[in-house]
Amino acid sequence: MINTDHHTPGLRRIIIFLAATVLFVAVLLFLPEEIGWSERATISIMLYGLILWAFAPVPIGLTSIIVLVLLMLLRPVGIETVLSGFSSPAVFLIIGGMMMAIGVNETPLIKRMTFSLLATMGSTSKGIYIGVGLLNQIQAFFIPATAVRASLMMPVLDGIIREADIKRDSNFNKLLYISTAFGISISGVAVLTAAIGNILTVELLRLYVGVSISYLEWFIYTAPIWILLTVAIMFILWKMYTPRERSFDTLQQEMKKKNEEIGKLTTGEMKCIFILIATILIWLTESWHGYHPTFGALFAVMMMALPVVGFVEWQKLLKINFGIVLLIGATLSLGYSLIESGAVDLLEVLVSPQVIVDVFSNPWLAIPITVLISHIYHLGVTNVSTAVITLLPVLISLSAQSGQDPVVISVLSAVTLLLGFILVVETMPNVVVHSTGRVEQQDFLLPGIVSTVASIIIITGVAYLYWPLIGFWP
Predict the structure, then answer these.
(1) How confident is the model at residue 352 (pLDDT cuts 50, 70, 90)?
(2) pTM for this entry
(3) Which Gene Ontology terms cover its molecular function (predicted)?
(4) Could you tell me if residue 45 is inside a domain?
């Protein structure tokens, strides 16, 4: 008998791909005749890419290639515009970030931090929970990209589960894995380089508005959101998945033993720490020296691989996820193409009727509406990069028409789009955690809904109460 379970996902992907292709052709052929070829073709390609990125019937890197090929084939813009996204600093910042993560992972630094935290705090369920939560947040400062941080945390959680003999259906199991998924998404809020969505937002603001936000400025704007979200979500998850009280003395002793076995800081670790500190200082002082964060990331990679001062082989640093590079480059190229072809002006008219502009003109309504729209949009467009690249130009246009500050609205939306709590597919940390088989979609649902409500209150509250104090709004 043939096991059809293995064929169903493949059939589903084929159906999605064919449906998206039919929609692409229909939009291309049947948009009103007064819409020119450049706008028509670009909008068709944008919708096609949006569906393929969101539902992933083919790998995201392949979708990126499809988008680029169609832009070249249909020629709504010149070849220079089609490939312009790959000349963006954002692409090289992502490349540098992924290479930095590989370099750090070549040292025992993450293991040392893990063992030290758990050796100190690992005697109780709450101590382990807080220790893992702190580790999730600390990594954001020197490991760019949420997917990389989530992947680095899985061996840590596996070790805790194994050493403490935690059952798959226990509350503590769900607490550790779901809090890691949510915590890593939250960890990207305040650190500009810690999430692809942040980097894309800054690039879009530079492109559409001509405004640059530095690493330090982003941190100042969003730090209270980050801190409040971390505390609130950890509290919510603890209350929903409160584990049975038990002693973890054996685990704590094991962590102490492993920490001792690692021994003193190695030369590679000391070099790594020095390079990371230097990189963070470069990022923090951008407003003084004017160097883009890409400089800091590539500087770190250079130092990690150079003879004598470095600590990792160059060939190892090259093993990055090239699909992510293609995604960032293609989405930015699509953004440039929307502008160049005039399609973005057409989209602004379609999505900004006067009644919406009038409501958005009230800043006290614009802020919660932006947060709510971003959350809802992210449920449909689950890929964060795709959501940012398609929603922000609309919000920037709407801000300009209604008299709101597009920078404020963009930062609000970008931060919100990082927070996918309800569906597994909303964020890469959720996907990575779910792929372990230790938690299911239903384990995310209720805590995800409550956490989403909490995030709406926190983000809106910070915008109302804190941003006026620092002159960011209104």
Answers:
(1) low
(2) 0.82
(3) organic anion transmembrane transporter activity; symporter activity
(4) no
